[in-house]
Amino acid sequence: MDPAAYKELAELEGRHWWFVGRRRIIEALLERLALPQDARILEIGCGTGGNLEMLARYGELRAAEYDDGARAVAAAKGVAREIAPCRLPDELPFASEKFDLIVLFDVLEHIEDDIACLRAIRKRMSERGWLVVTVPAFQFLWSGNDEYNHHFRRYSRAQLETVVRAGGFRPAYASYFNFWLFPAAAAVRFVKNLFFAEREEARSDLALPTDTLNGALAWLFASERVAMGRFSLPFGVSCILSARPTL
Fold first, then answer.
1. How far lies 94's CA from each of 9, 28, 123, 195, 199, in Å?
2. What is the DSSP code (8-state) at residue 199?
């Protein structure tokens, strides 16, 4: 990601409806994992640290981040025990540690060799540990925002499960999310692909709406958390997955 993208992330991830809703959905899934009270947790690709406070409630938290500036912002929050530099798949820190929970929230799509990335992560996982991943869904939703954020791909649920299995894990639960807003997102993408594809520029689509709309969208998005871990939603703008290491 470009420095401008990290700056935008730091400014918006605490209050923008998309980040607020995603955290609530992730938290609902984590609650169903029955982690040990003293769980050892690692967030890979923590960015500027928007998820650290949530994750720290579940155990002893470490984090890893490639970008120096983003890592400094995350470290300044004082939440994680340690935030180390990281470059996937070859430079993953904490070689002597085994973690009960490793999370990658919208990270895997940034890695060219996603299977090698997951195989490296598998080596840091305890035998009964959990992997939790979120990724953007459906390649036909590819947009200038994906270009702006240097994504390599978007995933279907089946593709994500296949990659996770190849990386040394067995999926326990997978679902799409951002279900309610998917029809609008798909319609916008269809129109842009039909009429404006050649003119679309790489740019962020994160814009903070009015407080009223932002709150309403956060509530609508987060309402999907009742499904997490119970049943799978048939489509959505993103995908979430939990998995155990293959023994």
1. 26, 27, 10, 48, 44
2. G
Q: Spell out the residues 6+ positions from residue 63 whose beta carbon is closer than 8 angstroms to its own.
A: 42, 43, 44, 46, 49, 52, 74, 80, 82, 83, 84
Q: Which residue, 81, 40, 32, is CA-closest to 58?
A: 40
pLDDT bucket at 206, cuts 50 / 70 / 90: confident
Nearest-5° angle of CA 166, CA 170, CA 174?
A: 105
Sheet arrangement for strand 99-105? 82-85, 59-65, 39-44, 99-105, 125-136, 238-245, 169-177
pLDDT digits (tens, 9 = 90+) for 216-233: 999 999 999 999 989 999
Average pLDDT over residues 77-84: 94
What six digits make up the tokens of 236?
């959505």
> Is this model's pTM higher than 0.90 or not?
yes
CA dist 97 and 78 (Å) reads 21
